[in-house]
Each structure stands twice: as structure tokens, then as C-alpha cells.
Amino acid sequence: MRLFDLLLGKPLATSDAHNEHIGVAAGIPIFGLDGLTSAAYGPEQAMAILIPLGLLGVQQHLLPIFGAILVLLAILYFSYRQTIEAYPNGGGSFTVASENLGDGAGLLAAAALMIDYILTAAVGVSAGVTALVSAVPRLHPHQLTLCLLILIVIVVINLRGVKESGFVFMLPTFLFVGTLLATVGVGIWHAYAAHGHPIPVSAPPPPISATMQYVTIWLLLKAFASGCAAMTGVEAVSNGVTAFKEPKSRKANQALTVIIGLLFIMLAGLAYVARAYGVTAMDSNDAAYQSVLSIEVAAVFGRGWFYFLTMGSVLAALSFSANTAFADFPRMARAIALKDYMPRVFLLRGRRLLFSHGIYALTGFTALLLIIFNGVTDRLIPLYAIGAFLAFTLSQAGMVRHWMKHPEAKHRSIKMFLNGLGAVATGVTLIVVLVAKFTSGAWITALLVPAIIWLMHGIKRHYTRINHETADPEPLRFTDLEQPLVVIPVARWDKITEKAVRFGLVMSQEVKIVTVETDTDSGFDETWEHMVMAPIRAHDGPVPQMVQVKSTYRTVITPLMDYILSLEKEYPTRKIAVLIPELVVKHWWENLLHNQRTQMLKLLLLVRGNRRIVVVNIPWYL
């Protein structure tokens, strides 16, 4: 526990929960890092689709594409402001869609968001490592290992609590934003001073020769769909409203405003700088591959100290952008679990007032995804954004329905229009993204969404069956109260056995003490008379029965199980209490020095027994 306290912090009392609430400054890195850092890879994803057009693709089509993306971003901003105000206790897509459109729509949003959060974590980590590999190419063979190491660091920081994670991520967030804004500002200034033709300090790699002479609508739609990866973190703040200090809605909206404002400036500025300096995307399989951001910073400032400071901040911010998923996924999992569509373990708060099991689940899925795709961002991106835009659409449609049910709401018509516009815009974008990315990997997401919904329905059916079978409308019954038949498996006479026998004699008048005859003689039958029977006769106590079960193959567990199950058939109306004497060691490693037969026996009794078999632990603490 001392190691846990050092690594993850000391446990927090429930009464300390209000101290864990955060302000706007901490909310920006916690809930906005994913959105902000998408400026580092969003433009590149669009530019990679324009590679067949050569330099002409960036010069003529990049700004219009990002103009459309920024318009959509502005619509989402105003839409989610309404959601945050309407749902001060957290207005994630699942909650909004479930309350206004029904559980079916809510589960669709939940499945989409779960996939999106897992991809957010995986893409964030892999994009950070890609930035590192761009600056230090010799690390390329270790890309997956670096991804998993960074994932471990993020998990440890998150397990320390919301407040501490916000403090840790604040410096890399503001350093990332500051260096990118400096790149945008200086780049635009140089472009203005040079009348739109600045001279790069470090010349960008020559563009790949154009393989297409004429642009097609399909190519532009694919570029737009890929660039929409820059908007995947927009919903995070609405999901995490409850993490903010009072007034929660106002502070959450302030954080959202700062996040969207900075993202808007960086996306527009980086797209303009790329066009002005003639920067194009490189083939990610190229041995000398550099990210677009690396090329842009080098073009504006050269490869001096500022370049390495910027790339270092990009690495840290991109890697830590996975924190947005770690902040929101557990909250969303809890909301789903409250309706019994996910395991109830996601409702539990851990030692640092976190929904820790959500963090554990997200960690496992993210690590699996990184391993499957070898930590390569370009392989993960095609799966990305679909879940987010599906959730956006359902959330905004749900908000329209919400305003329809509240005719007394202030400025209801304007709010309904904004949310309706958001639903239409994101719905159209969803179709474009799905069609454009379908063959590149989006089909995987399209299959996973119904599979997750089917799984959640299965979980719901399980809990419904449990509630139905265990519900008891009758008061406590005093009929057919009978002492149980007590069975005590023992190996030899010692203090642990003596404790179990004493407890068994208190429980029932009918006690069976069972030993298993193997090729090793325990000597228990020789001590039976003077260690057990003589004291019982002296005190006129209930007489237990000693039962010796033969083991043909020298095993202990199987003969015991067969005997207990035979008793269950022999006494169809009696409860059978199996008292299991168990040694409890002081240190975990001491368990390795003892057999674990008791654990195996308990497991088999749970699996093969029925409601009439009761297992009771009789521990002896060293």
C-alpha cells in the first residue's frame, strides 16, 4: 500500500470530492487536449489525400476545405453551448439521446462514443510518437514500444485523480499551444512581409509529382472527411461538466470557448502557413518521413532550438491528448452502467474518487488497438471520426427534441435552430466521412457499433433476469427453518481445524468432518478419539461424524466435490454448509509456499453447486 500511495497518491475520502473539482485553466488540458492537438494531425490528414495533385492541391484546395471544416466547428460550438446549459450534470451524447430519443438512440450514441474514445487514446499516443520519430528518425523501429510506455505514464497520472492530472497536463498543453501560435503568427507575418511568398528558413521537401491533372469532387470529399479528424474532441466538455467547480455550466462553457477558439486559430493558421510556404504531405512509408507540422515549423524557424522545443511540446501534448478519453470514458461508462447496459463495476469509485474500472478498461482496449495497428497513426485514422460524428448527430437531434418538450425555455426557438443546424451539418458530414473512409477501414467501425449494441443488450438482459429471479415481495419467512448439514474438509488436527470444528458445532447438531485418504497418511484418525471425541463426551456436546473418503488417483478436490454433491442429492430439503479452514499469510509472496486447494474447492462449489450449498470461510491469520 505504501508503494500505491507513492505512485498513485493517498486515498481520498468521499468528503473530499468537492476539492477535486476543477476550474477553467485545469479544464482546458483535461477536456480540451484532444481537440487542441488535433491541429497537429488534422491538416496533415487532409493534405495526405491531396498528394496526387502535387503542390497544386495545397495551393488551391487546402484553404477551402478547412474553411468548410471551420464552419462546421463553429456550428458545433454554438450547439454544445446549449447542451451544457441544458444538462449541468453532464450532457454526453448517451444521456441526451437516451432521455429525448429513447434507449435505442442512446445505445447507438454510446457504442459510437466508446469506439471514438478508444481511438482518441490510441491516435493521441501514436501521433505523439510519430512527432518524436519525425524529429529522431532512428527511433522508428521502436515506435510501438514507445507508444505502450507513454500509455502507461498517462494511466498512472490519471489514476492520481482529476485535479492532479489537470495540473500535470497544464504545462505541455500551454507550451504546445504557445509554440504553434508562435509558428502561425511568425509564418503569417513573414508571408505578409514577402507579399505571400516567404522564403523558408529550412526548405520543405520537394512535393511528390502530381499523378492527377484534374481534381474530382470525390477527392475533395475524402480530404474533407480526413480533415474532420480535427473535431473529434468537441464533445468532451459536455460529458465532463460535473468535474467543474460551481457554477458548473458557466465554467464548462468558458473552457469550451477557449478550446474551440484556440483550435479555430491554429487550424486556420497552419493551413495558411502550409499554403504560403508550399508545404505538402509526405508518404508515411517514406524512410525520410516528416510530419507536416515538423516541415512547417522548420520552414518558419529552421531546425534550431525553437524547432526542437516545438516538436518536444507536440510530442508531449499529442501523447497526453489521450487524457481526454481517460477523463470522459469512465464518466460515460458510469452513465451507461446506471441503466444496466454495462457491468455495474463501472459505477464504483476508486481510492482517488475516480471511476477506476473505466480507466482500466480503456487502457486494455487502447493497448490492444496500438498492438494490432503497430502504433501507426495513418492506420488508425480511417477508423476515426465516424463514432464522434454519429454521437454529434444524435446528441444535437436529442437537443432539438429536448427544446420541443420545454416550450417555456428562454430563447427556445434560437436554441432549437442551433441544435437542429448542428444535427443536419454533422449528419451530412457523417455520411461523407463514412462513404469516403469506408474501404480504408471505416467498415470496421460500422461493424463494431452494432456488435457493441448487441453486447450491451445482453448485459441488460442479464441484469433484468437477476432482478426478476432475486426479487422477493414476501416478508421474512419463519417456516422450514432447519439447521444446516455442516461439512468440514480437514487434512490434520491443528489450530485451524479446531477453530472450524468449534464453529461447526455452534452452527448445527449434525456435523460431518471429512478427510481424504491418499497415499500420504495425515494421522488424523489416530488423533480423533482423544482430540475430538473425548472433550465432546466430557461436555455432553453434539457428536460430529468423521467421514473418510478414498481417493483412487491421489487427488483431494475431486473426491471432496463428489462427496458434497452426493450429500446434496441425499438431503434434497437441507441446506449444506461447507466450512473451509483457510490459512491467511502475512505477505502475498508467502502464498507461493502453500497449495491453493481451498481456493479451487471454493471455485468448484460456486460453479457446480446450487442455492442449497453455502460456503463459509474459516480463516486463520498468521
In short:
The protein has helices at 2-8, 24-49, 55-86, 93-101, 103-135, 143-158, 162-193, 217-227, 236-239, 248-277, 292-301, 305-320, 323-337, 356-372, 377-380, 386-404, 412-470, 495-507, 524-538, 557-570, 597-608, and strands spanning 485-489, 511-517, 545-550, 576-584, 613-621.
CATH architecture label name of the largest domain: Up-down Bundle
Strand content: 5-15%
Uncertain runs:
none
Largest sheet: 5 strands, parallel
CATH fold annotation of the largest domain = Amino acid/polyamine transporter I
Q: Give average pLDDT, whole number.
A: 84
Strand runs, count: 5
Cα distance, first to last residue? 19 Å
Compute the number of helices: 21
Could you give the order of the helices and strands?
A: HHHHHHHHHHHHHHHHHEHEHEHEHE
Spell out the CATH superfamily of the largest domain: Amino acid/polyamine transporter I
Structural class: mainly alpha
Topology:
Elements: H1 2-8, H2 24-49, H3 55-86, H4 93-101, H5 103-135, H6 143-158, H7 162-193, H8 217-227, H9 236-239, H10 248-277, H11 292-301, H12 305-320, H13 323-337, H14 356-372, H15 377-380, H16 386-404, H17 412-470, E1 485-489, H18 495-507, E2 511-517, H19 524-538, E3 545-550, H20 557-570, E4 576-584, H21 597-608, E5 613-621
Parallel strand pairs: 1-2, 1-4, 2-3, 4-5
